[in-house]
Amino acid sequence: MRLVTFTENGTTRLGVMQGQNITDLSRAAPDLPREMNAFLSAGESAIEAAGNAEGDDFALNEVKLLSPVSQPGKVLAVALNYSDHLAEVQEAMPDFPTPKTPMLFTKQNSSVTGPFDPIYLPPESPQLDYEAELAIVIGKTCRRVPKDRAHEVIAGGMVANDVSIRDWQMASQTMTMGKSWDSHCPMGPALVTPDELDFANLDFTCLVNGEQRQSSNTSLLVFDIPTLINHLSTVCTLYPGDVILTGTTSGVALWMEGQPWLKPGDVVTCDFGALGSIENIVENDPVGTMIA
Predict the structure, then answer these.
(1) Model-wide pTM > 0.90
(2) Fewest C-beta atoms under 10 Å: which of 3, 44, 143, 277?
(3) Where does residue 265 fall: left (phi above 0), alpha (psi -120 to 50 degrees), or beta otherwise?
(4) Domains in the chain, please, with CATH?
(5) Which residues contact 156 (CB under 8 A, 6 or more apart)?
(6) pLDDT tens digits, residue range 122-180?
């Protein structure tokens, strides 16, 4: 099943994507929550009801897709989780150690944006970079999850772009400040449930203006999805709607010759085949000082 969050006629609700059509769950199953975190918290009965919903209420071009999880409680991310990405870092920084455990950081949830919304280039830095990633969404409240039970807490997967401002990232050991700018976590287009796909074997690419910059397969993760869930849930309780960005492969602008940073007008496409693709155009950040 492919769950979406969408806006139509000024209201936001949940739907099920089937091909180029969306079943509006507010019509087909009106007792279900209309926000993804609450929907996932409602458990298996909600998933079953959504799976049984019928009706081609809207064509995709009649609605605006938002990030399926628009307000995750946590966005937890993993650095250097593909060996080729680690290799390009170590080529430039030979003394950089090989991580023995997942290298983790957070993105603030205010960075989350829709699968086709703009990515903003801030005036504070030109070093805007891309990172195509598989996002895993937690579906159950959980703590200290054994690796062999990790599948029980996965609600689904999404395509994500861990957009980064590299000089701000490097200036802070936690990386969070370089990873958390508004609009720098586009996700979607749908939350795809585990029965649809094998998240451990997905080819993916990242294109900038049609030029391939990244290409890999999720089977090449250094620390696999069960390991990440086990490691993270050892420290903190994970809740429905929490998101784990599993890492990116080589080919980011930071380590390319000439450092081809993203600039206004660039189109970034992250494609995960059957999981879907997201596409975002780069624009100058329109927000100056704001005190609401």
Answers:
(1) yes
(2) 44
(3) left
(4) 2-66 (no CATH), 75-284 (3.90.850.10)
(5) 3, 136, 137, 139, 191, 192, 193, 194
(6) 999 999 999 999 999 999 999 999 999 999 999 999 999 999 999 999 998 889 999 99
